[in-house]
Specification:
By secondary structure, the chain is mainly alpha-helical. Helix 4 packs antiparallel against helix 5.
């Protein structure tokens, strides 16, 4: 078994870049999938409600593989799991660009989500191991490469389809080839072992890991809410033109990208506690700015949310390597699963609140939720030696 028998040479620079490459693959593949959704809807000739149920299959597939991915990495090694999941990721992306039969689309989306969940979980296990071996902060930069992949994937699809005039299939073939090429280059640097330490087959959070998972859940819920409801807020509450609906999320995403790419230096200089507690406070103030600042000044709120939220999750993934309640091979999947639940719950929860109390008050609720996140984070810092 690769996880038990492989040589555990101390990870170095090559391994660091391999982790960055797989984070890039995750973000790039996800961004390459998003523009295919309207084409899939048209090919299948389905209504919005059916599409919504269909897209839920991606989340279901991820939630199936996330809790067991750590055990797979421990048994077979991060390299083997990531290469297998990455290959499946690219193949399902290709399939989704041409599928025109609903039952087959369900299968492809389940497998697409399953591969995405495995990549997301195992690359974070590898990131913790590589960061620990380096003796310095790397996690924010690792997560930043997911955002880089997202920006590149979205930009290239727009270039290939909107400017060059390629078909969605042709553009997806290129995207799949890029994923394959990146994995081929990164292959030798991927860790041939997993988190170690044994643990249960299915990752169920307990102790301090459950609190870190709650932080991830809130953080991803907030991020998903800004992505899915920021445009609705701007058009319905602020009266912006539909053409400007995406500006808030674009500013938020750009701020988050910059802060993650510079986050390791910031955390090293200011410390984890200051970055997280200051970041959550900045995020709360950002939501208040989005709601109450006049005119274009409200965009400062979206910027503040991105700045504040950027490094919270990376810091707590790093902390998973310092807790001793659960083995790394189950702690990371447990936190990843709870974080992904936040992604899935966010749009529906905000939709319910927006219907019940109005979208402005729903955004105010998000600010209060971030305050809860700050309280949990303070407790975690008291409990785990940082």
């Amino acid at each position: 078994m690769a996880g038990k028998n492989a040589s555990r040479k101390t990870p170095g620079v090559r391994e660091q870049w391999a982790v960055r490459a797989l984070f890039f693959v995750g973000g790039f593949g996800s961004a390459s999938w998003a523009p295919l959704v309207p084409y899939l809807k048209a090919r299948l000739a389905i209504e919005d409600d059916v599409l919504g149920m269909l897209l839920l299959c991606v989340g279901i597939g991820s939630l199936v593989t996330m809790p067991v991915s750590g055990t797979a990495a421990e048994r077979f090694g991060c390299r083997r799991v990531l290469l297998t999941a990455g290959t499946l990721f690219a193949m399902m992306l290709l399939g989704l660009s041409v599928v025109d039969v609903l039952p087959l689309a369900v299968v492809l989306l389940l497998l697409f989500g399953a591969s995405m969940g495995a990549i997301d979980t195992v690359v974070n296990i590898a990131a913790v191991l590589v960061e620990q071996a380096s003796g310095r902060r790397l996690m924010s930069g690792f997560h930043g490469f997911w955002s880089v992949g997202g920006f590149v994937g979205a930009g290239l699809f727009g270039l290939w389809v909107g400017t060059v005039g390629l078909t969605p299939l042709a553009s997806t073939v290129i995207a799949a080839a890029i994923i394959a090429a990146v994995m081929l280059v990164a292959r030798s640097g991927l860790l041939p072992y997993g988190g170690g330490g044994g643990g249960a087959l299915i990752a169920i959070p307990r102790g301090i890991v459950a609190f870190i998972g709650a932080i991830a859940c809130i953080a991803f819920l907030v991020e998903g809410a800004v992505m899915d409801w920021g445009g609705v807020f701007l058009t319905t509450v602020r009266g912006m033109d539909m053409a400007m609906a995406g500006t808030g999320f674009a500013i938020f995403s750009a701020a988050m990208l910059v802060m993650r790419l510079t986050g390791d230096a910031i955390v090293s200089r200011l410390g984890q506690r200051a970055v997280v507690l200051g970041g959550t406070l900045t995020t709360m103030l950002g939501f208040l700015g989005v709601i109450y600042l006049p005119g274009a000044a409200m965009y400062l709120g979206f910027f503040a949310i991105g700045v504040g939220a950027a490094n919270v999750v990376p810091v707590f993934y790093s902390l998973l390597g310092r807790q001793d309640v659960m083995p790394l091979s189950t702690a990371v999947p447990a936190v990843s699963t709870l974080g992904y639940l936040g992604v899935l719950m966010g749009p529906a929860a905000i939709g319910f609140l927006a219907h019940a109390i109005g979208i402005a008050d729903a955004f105010l609720f998000l600010a209060l939720l971030v305050a809860v996140e700050m309280g949990i984070a303070a407790y975690v810092f008291r409990s785990v030696k940082a």
